[in-house]
Design goal:
The protein is an all-alpha fold. The protein contains 4 helices and no strands.
């Protein structure tokens, strides 16, 4: 496995898919700018669905 693949896996599968905020991932990867982190991360459909469910639940509480 290359470092490139490992960073993408960490940025996407390990951190973002487990709810770690993008700004925390930025710091974990040692990036100075958020744009650098966005290159190493992508939002998975499963995470988007989970985030929408959480938002819906919060809105229903209001």
């Amino acid at each position: 496995m290359t470092t490139h693949v490992a960073r993408h896996t960490f940025g996407t599968a390990v951190t973002l898919s487990n709810g770690v905020p993008i700004m925390s991932v930025k710091n974990m990867l040692g990036h100075k700018k958020l744009d650098q982190t966005l290159h190493y991360s992508r939002v998975l459909p499963e995470q988007l669905s989970k985030d929408m469910d959480n938002l819906s639940a919060r809105l229903q509480e209001i």
